[in-house]
């Protein structure tokens, strides 16, 4: 049995893995899909105090309190910021890191440093919750199926602004021995340079020309096969 920990991206929550999770569990594996503080079912905790370091601690504490070892740690989009921070904190608990069209920043860089176009895409936080951005039009991220858009729109919640402005902390541990797989969704090429850098650093990079940003929503079976084949 493999334990998978799936970390969602901006505006989402553990619910965002609903199509992928049962495919892994059907093969007899344990799958944990934490919701990051301030989002979805943990939206009551939202505020301007929630940042990247909060979310790194969310997942680090999950691994520690659940006594998890040899975990396959998966991050989608902003979740890549989080799993990179977790990797630098408890590498001994992680067997493999998978980035699904995700940030993979260098220490000291924020999400906005990696993708400077994001502030224009996100816009200004609304007056009713100045601590967080409202969900963007997800068609801009390559999500076009009406059912997918309705499902996401019904569940997405504001994203705390500090998460994308706070830089990744410098790692406290050497994680160079943990293998990395990067899935690039080439039909929505936000992370073309990130994938290139990952390959240069020795990661296994899988480029899907027909996939847009939400690979686990649009292609759950293909995503599951990548994760299952890591064993």
Compact overview of the structure:
This protein is α/β, with parallel strands linked by helices. It has helices at 21-25, 52-65, 79-87, 111-114, 118-122, 146-155, 162-165, 192-200, 215-218, 220-228, and strands at 3-7, 30-32, 71-76, 94-100, 132-133, 159-160, 180-185, 204-208.
List descriptors.
231 residues, methyl indole-3-acetate esterase activity, single chain, two-stranded antiparallel ribbon, alpha/beta, 6-stranded parallel sheet, Pimeloyl-ACP methyl ester carboxylesterase, MES/HNL, Rossmann fold, AB_hydrolase_1
Give your account of this protein's structure.
The chain is an alpha/beta fold and 231 residues long. It has a single domain, classed as Alpha/Beta hydrolase fold, catalytic domain (Rossmann fold), CATH 3.40.50.1820. It has 10 helices and 8 strands. Strands 2-1-3-4-7-8 form a 6-stranded parallel sheet. α2 crosses α3. The chain is globular, with a radius of gyration of 16 Å. The termini are close together. The mean pLDDT is 96.
């Amino acid at each position: 049995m493999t334990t998978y920990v799936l970390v969602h991206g901006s505006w989402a929550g553990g619910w965002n893995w609903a199509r992928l999770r049962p495919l892994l569990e059907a093969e007899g594996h344990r799958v944990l899909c934490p919701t990051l503080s301030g989002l979805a079912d943990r939206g009551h905790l939202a505020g301007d105090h929630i940042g990247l370091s909060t979310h790194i601690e969310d997942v680090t504490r999950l691994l520690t309190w659940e006594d998890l070892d040899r975990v396959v740690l998966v991050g989608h989009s902003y979740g890549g910021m989080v799993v990179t921070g977790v990797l630098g904190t408890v590498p001994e608990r992680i067997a493999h890191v998978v980035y699904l069209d995700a940030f993979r920043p260098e220490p000291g860089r924020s999400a906005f440093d990696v993708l400077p176009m994001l502030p224009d895409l996100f816009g200004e936080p609304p007056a009713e919750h100045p601590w967080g951005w409202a969900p963007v039009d997800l068609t801009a991220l390559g999500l076009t199926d009406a059912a997918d858009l309705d499902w996401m729109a019904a569940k997405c919640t504001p994203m705390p602004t500090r998460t994308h402005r706070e830089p990744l902390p410098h790692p406290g541990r050497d994680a160079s021995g943990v293998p990395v797989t990067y899935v690039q969704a080439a039909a929505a090429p936000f992370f073309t340079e990130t994938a290139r850098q990952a390959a240069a650093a020795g990661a296994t990079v899988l480029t899907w020309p027909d996939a847009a940003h939400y690979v686990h929503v649009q292609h759950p079976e293909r995503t599951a096969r990548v994760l299952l084949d890591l064993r």
